[in-house]
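Sanity check

After download, print the first record. It should look like this:
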Amino acid sequence: MPISRVTKLYAVQDAKIAPLTSDPAGGTPTYGALIDVPGIKSMEISGDIEVKELRGDNTLLDSDSSISNITVSFPHAKLSLDVLKALISSTVTDSGTTPAQTSVWEMDNTAKPAPFKLEGVTPVSGGDLIGGDVHFTLHKCILSSFPGLGLAEEDYRTIENEARCVPLISTGKWIKVTINETAAAIA
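Expected structure tokens:
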């Protein structure tokens, strides 16, 4: 008997992104190495539906709708230069020796948002299945606003990211939700 298709959703335990390196029409998408989104706080997915109405003879004759937009916001508690590099074409340079090491993220005037996959997962038993979990995967995302960077007076600064999600050219896949009977790591 298959597992239940209904579950609660409690918390987010982990999230990772992977740069989309290739998305050929009729082919298979290729992703770079997974990058941890440190201190993930939430993964909020929303969308828009566009409705068209056909009117005539002074009445509504028909109505049709289509999904026109899916967005995701994924604030996280810790700054990651590797995440920034994957989200925006930019560089990270490590230099120096202890005790004067540096790691520098730098963006220049040719920088553009880069496509990536985002996957988030509940903690074990964050769904109804004891020992299981729930994964949300967005196959192709592109930043829709600049990451919320900076500092705050006498408080922690949360990094805010928002992205627009689009279907893959290669497969047409857009979003996936997986309920696992046994918890699985993001792969």
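If your output differs, re-run the checksum step. Summary of this record's structure: The radius of gyration is 20 Å.
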